[in-house]
Amino acid sequence: MEIYWCEKLGIRRKEEFQRFLDAMSKRIAQGHPTYGDPVNSGQPFLHFLKCELDAYDRTGNRDHLINIANYAWLESIAPQHPNSHMDARTASTRRKRRLM
């Protein structure tokens, strides 16, 4: 898989990111035979994401971060949130939005 990468971030970070994406895709592939098509599964991905975040907060086990990333992706393709939408103009929760 080829990904866009800013050279300023360095090749080591790209390799780390690729390993993380690889771990995510392997976990999704492993879960598919067990749970089936996520779009039609009716699974509460947002709830699972919150549980994984809580587990990471308690334990510090980075393995939970792979699950968090996957549940975020699954929630994006099969949203459970009643007001799910996409608006790229939304301000970040961690920084002020720059005016152009």
Give an overview of the whole structure:
The chain is mostly helical. The protein has a domain at 14-77. The chain is built from three helices and no strands. The protein has helices at residues 11-35, 45-59, 63-77. Helix 1 (11-35) packs across helix 3 (63-77). The mean pLDDT is 88.
Distance between the termini: 34 Å
Which structural class fits the helix and strand makeup?
mainly alpha
Helix count, per DSSP?
3
Shape summary: globular
> Any low-confidence stretches, pLDDT <50, length ≥5?
none
Mean pLDDT: 88
Number of strands: 0
Helical residues, percent: 55-70%
- Indicate the radius of gyration in whole angstroms: 16 Å
One letter per element, helices H and strands E, the order comes to HHH
Main beta sheet: none
Hey, roughly how much beta strand do the residues contain? under 5%
Provide keyphrases for this structure.
100 residues, mainly alpha, globular, 3 helices
Summarize the structure.
By secondary structure, this protein is an all-alpha fold.
Topology:
Layout: H1 11-35, H2 45-59, H3 63-77
